[in-house]
Design goal:
453 residues; Urease, subunit C, domain 1; TIM Barrel; seven-stranded mixed beta sheet; six-stranded parallel beta sheet; hydrolase activity, acting on carbon-nitrogen (but not peptide) bonds; Amidohydro-rel; signal; Metal_Hydrolase
Length: 453
């Protein structure tokens, strides 16, 4: 009987004890001074209790050595789709569902992601369960549907179709009880598909503002960005590949419009197009995390060779247009002007794999001239502000963090080599996350029949 009571007591107290500890000798990023400050930290009940200078000793029955690593605030991928990973020609797909995405993200050291288009019933129901409070997986933030015109971009599944200002208002009001974290609308005049007109976009943005919901506008051109910003969009997403007009950075700053550029999609394909050995070694195919999270059959579609004429010619055309140079110039000028740039991978797209794509986005933004400090700020505290999330390495906040090599602010390529992951004070065992991030046949059948969406 005594043994039984002892086991019961251990079962009751173990979760609390696991979330109470001191971690000494870590480097805390200071985004104002852009310096790494040596600190000791106490975590109690899964939250930061004390953050003190490393010269101040903290004692505990559970003391962990941070080994001089950087303690990073929780990352959020600000543009993804909770589906899975795609082959180049869409002929094969590694479908992993929402839970699979949540596990892939956390395995990659990403504590949350903003889903910018999924079946609204599935994604909101899953989000509202708040599973990370009880098990190891990343938090989902969600827009739900994509608002677009019939046959427009996004009109290939469960979404909301609007063609007039009145329809925009009515559909937004109908969605609002689900409490979307943001709402997304397509305003893309660069492609061949139809899109909403300016009057409908304006009505949508005004109604979103009156409902106190942040708006994200999918754009196709710099003119689209200008219009969306002038009409009051909270954020625009994607980065055109033509030369950026001179007025755009000042306009975005004046209007307070943030941008989620999702540079990975085009940049990764440029790396993988008719690739040299140096380009391949700098591509997603050479990231160790990719092999853990992505099926080999999908990876065999890359690099892009002349045998795949459609995509080969498309990327060749981007190179001829100077896409990489134009986009690099745009990112440098936007960053220099003080535009808030959030980090979003567009996971689920070509060569942008769930979890891995986030790290590639940070890598490419640095390669394009952005300061690593601004990039990390855009993937942490700026993302928290946009989503109104009370996260960060501050006393009283949830102990969501990762540990990284001390040189990470010199080379963001190191971000994919995450050393340790903590979620609500729990040290995360990464390997079990692969059961859902890379589903076996049994798990896939469950997804197929609609379980664990």
């Amino acid at each position: 009987m005594k043994k039984l009571w002892l086991l019961l007591a251990l079962a009751i107290t173990a979760p609390t004890l696991a979330n109470d500890f001191v971690i000494n000798n870590v480097l805390l990023p200071d985004f104002e001074t852009r310096e790494l400050t040596p600190v000791n930290i106490e975590v109690v009940d899964g939250k930061f209790k004390q953050i003190v200078d490393s010269s101040v000793p903290l004692s505990h029955t559970n003391v962990r050595d941070g080994k001089g690593q950087v303690i990073m605030p929780a990352f959020i991928d600000m543009h993804s789709h909770s589906m899975g990973n795609s082959s180049l020609d869409r002929s094969d797909y590694q479908y992993i569902g929402i839970r699979g995405t949540a596990n892939a993200m956390l395995y990659a050291g990403v504590h949350g992601w903003l889903d910018l288009y999924s079946d609204e019933e599935d994604i909101f129901e899953y989000r509202d369960q708040q599973f990370p409070e009880e098990r190891d997986e990343a938090y989902v933030f969600a827009a739900g549907p994509c608002f677009t015109v019939p046959t427009g971009h996004c009109d290939f599944g469960e979404t909301r179709l609007i063609s007039t200002p009145d329809e925009a208002v009515l559909e937004l009001r109908d969605l609002s009880p689900t409490k979307p974290d943001v709402v997304k609308i397509v305003f893309d005049n660069a492609g061949s598909k139809p899109t909403v007109d300016e009057a409908t976009l304006e009505a949508f943005l005004n109604e979103a503002r009156s409902l106190n919901i942040k708006s994200v506008v999918h754009i196709g051109s710099w003119s689209d960005i200008r219009t969306a910003s002038e009409l009051g969009a909270d954020a625009v997403t994607h980065l055109p590949w033509h030369t950026m007009p001179e007025d755009i950075p000042e306009l975005l700053v004046k209007q307070g419009t943030v941008i989620i550029p999702t540079v990975s999609v085009i940049n990764e394909l440029l790396h993988l197009h008719d690739s040299s050995s140096d380009e391949l070694s700098a591509s997603v195919l050479s990231v160790t995390m990719t092999d853990a999270l992505v099926e080999e059959d999908l990876l065999n579609d890359y690099p892009i060779t002349a045998e795949n004429k459609v995509y080969f010619d498309w990327i060749a055309g981007l190179k001829e247009d100077g896409a990489l140079v134009n986009r690099k110039d745009a990112i440098k000028r936007l960053d220099a002007a003080g535009v808030t740039i959030l980090v979003g991978s567009d996971g689920g797209n070509f060569a942008v794999f769930q979890g891995v794509g986030f790290h590639r986005e940070m890598y490419f933004l640095q390669q394009m001239g952005m300061s690593p400090w601004d990039i990390v700020l855009g993937s942490t505290y700026s993302a928290y502000d946009f989503l109104d999330v009370d996260w960060g390495i501050k006393e009283g906040r949830p102990a969501n963090f990762t540990l990284h090599h001390r040189r990470i602010f010199e080379d963001l390529g190191l971000s994919a080599k995450v050393k340790a992951i903590y979620l609500n004070g729990r040290w995360v065992q990464r390997e079990p996350l692969l059961d859902y991030a890379t589903p076996d046949f049994f798990q896939y059948i469950k997804l197929f029949f609609g379980f664990e969406v």
